[in-house]
Write a structure and sequence with these properties.
Chain A is mainly beta and about 350 residues long. Chain A is about 5% helix and about 40% strand. Chain A has helices at about 70-75, 120, 160, 215-220, and strands at about 10-15, 20, 40, 55-60, 65-70, 80-85, 110-115, 135-145, 150-160, 170-175, 175, 185-190, 200-210, 220-225, 235, 240-245, 250-255, 255-265, 270-280, 285, 290, 300-310, 315-325, 345-354. Chains A, B: This is DMSO/TMAO reductase YedYZ molybdopterin-dependent catalytic subunit.
Chain lengths: ~350, ~350
């Protein structure tokens, strides 16, 4: 009863389906445990039955097959530290405001996924010459309230992405079987793409010779640059270069003196090359110190910056990450009607008192 | 491991000291259990020792005394369903933005507090004629980071408020001993005032003949109407008339047709007399149906309103509560520098799809 222990929790955005943010500002380790990994669902959780421990591969393959968890455990392993970020992360920051789940900064988490590269897996089935995409279907289904339709969750990957050596069908997370809420027993893990590509509860992989047109890649997870028209729309894929300032917290009140500014930065193309901070609204930029705790192409980096606040007053801190492809966080967000890929320069305000 | 249960959590605002919001939008019962009761602290939690089970009464009394929990259990009981709301609740909504903990709508919770009326308790000590205020000190102490000083938490109540029959020194919450995080073993419970008055971990009550000038009532918990000046400042006391819309969630996307709009409303003066909704930016108002689940002067009321959305488009819903003293939520928030008492008309936007 007399419990003094203090810990953060997931932040609830909705319960049916369950959508919860990671308390990312309050986590200090580079590997996030299940209990703090963000949850983003389209439907209620599926019930895990014996049949879920199988998935099938069919379509444009020379040898259609069904695989059991035990089969996968016999295959070569691939283990990668990888972040997943929801394409709607930071949606609440768009101006004008955008409808949908009002994610703040916590729809991102990372940890070690382990499984089999699809490139190895497809050795067992072969691929026909006309194979173009692989359609992944999850065991999750139900009414999609925003569409008023009963659906299952299905998305495709082009063959080139699917056969990247770090695109894996994972069965472990942080050396434990994947938990139900995160896709047990099999979750597709797609490096560098937003999280909607990493299909949970994988039921089947269907190799097709055409461009798959499911609603989760032709209606949702599409950038629509205009409010009233669908022209110039294009699909959401690669994670944008991005960052957050973890400390101090936005709108906090601090004492004069030295403060360590801390955060993380990440990208879906190459690596984070540089993180810069500005205290003069972007006129001049100073380089933060980057620490990559664990070597991985797919993880965020931590950064710190020591700053001494000499004078009381209100300060605006800007932070931008720049990746090895020279993509930098922009001064203006790319507004799009469904609110994906927000990566405007990160900003906090603090008040320094005497 | 295969846990499908879905539940909300507290939302973390800071961990040292611990400040966490109630997931109020996702709770349906009128009585909030400990695990969902908001947490608002000035310091780290005190360690509970044998001595904490005593508090002393001194100062301008005829008979100074120390009381043990067992003494209180022998006295007449007072049991009240009462809400507590942090004075900073909704602070994040102020425009221009205000520094400090960025509470959204969940720094409010309610349940059944049980203990002894101070009016009965002070029968045992008597009060001298010059008694003017009672200063309550908690066992919590430490560095107040915004002040750069070591302090304990102390606040006073004027005698008239302290001796109201529903101002109690509580030792139970929802029929259980109060948990450490909420003030065990003794918490002052002050009806109709914002939560800062309901001192936790009560250590002493000091009756004084003057106006107590502690920082938690002369620096913090003061309305400062101007950014650069302290003129016209006055202390935060009574809870403002207020409401929240619990469903639909802000910026949600809904299908055409009938939807039940739901929320709660409360006040620190009298009762909630009426809750009204507007779909035309405040030109016309329609009355919501109020349900008071449990009879209490100090609890919120639930309200519902059935509305049919005929046409796709974006809608703004406004909600205002009006109390029995004819206080209504205003169209403009009363801006104040430290961000207390926000009670502008509640607002959500929803998008209706065909």
């Amino acid at each position: 009863m007399y419990n003094r222990s203090v810990r953060p929790f997931l932040t609830t955005r909705s319960l049916a389906p369950e959508n919860q943010e990671s308390p990312i500002h309050f986590l200090t380790k580079p590997i996030i445990s299940y209990e703090y990994f963000y949850l983003r669902n389209h439907f209620n959780y599926p019930t895990l039955k014996e049949e879920n421990f199988f998935f099938s591969i069919g379509g444009e393959v020379t040898q259609p097959q069904t695989f059991h968890l035990y089969d996968l455990l016999q295959m070569p392993k691939r283990k990668v530290l990888m972040l997943l970020e929801c394409a709607g992360n930071k949606r609440s920051k768009f101006e004008p405001k955008v409808y949908g789940e009002q994610w703040e900064e916590g729809a991102i988490s990372q940890g070690v996924w382990e499984g089999v590269s699809l490139k190895d897996l497809f050795q067992y089935t072969g691929l026909k010459a006309q194979a173009k995409e692989i359609v992944f279907e999850g065991y999750d289904f139900g009414e999609d309230k925003s569409k008023g339709k009963y659906l299952s969750y299905k998305r495709s990957l082009p063959l080139s992405k699917a056969l990247h050596e770090d695109t894996i069908i994972a069965y472990k997370y942080n050396d434990q079987p994947i938990s139900l809420k995160h896709g047990a027993p099999f979750r597709l893990i797609v490096p560098h793409w937003y999280g909607m590509a990493s299909v949970k509860w994988v039921k089947s992989m269907d190799v097709v010779s055409y461009s798959f047109q499911g609603p989760y890649q032709t209606e949702d997870y599409v950038y629509y640059p205009y409010e009233d028209s669908d022209i110039d729309a294009y699909p959401v894929t690669t994670i944008n270069v991005n960052s957050i300032i973890k400390a101090p917290l936005n709108f906090s009140i601090l004492k004069k003196g030295e403060h360590t500014i801390k955060g993380i930065a990440w990208t879906g193309m190459g690596n984070v090359r540089k993180v810069e901070l500005s205290l003069d609204h972007g006129q001049t930029w100073m380089e933060a110190k980057i620490e990559q705790e664990i070597k991985s192409h797919y993880s965020w980096v931590s950064w710190t910056f020591l700053w001494e606040f000499h004078k009381p007053g209100e300060y605006t801190l800007l932070c931008r990450a720049i990746d090895s492809h020279n993509r930098a966080q922009p001064m203006e967000a790319f507004w799009n009607r469904k609110g994906y890929g927000y990566n405007r320069i990160s900003e906090i305000k603090v008040k320094i008192e005497g």
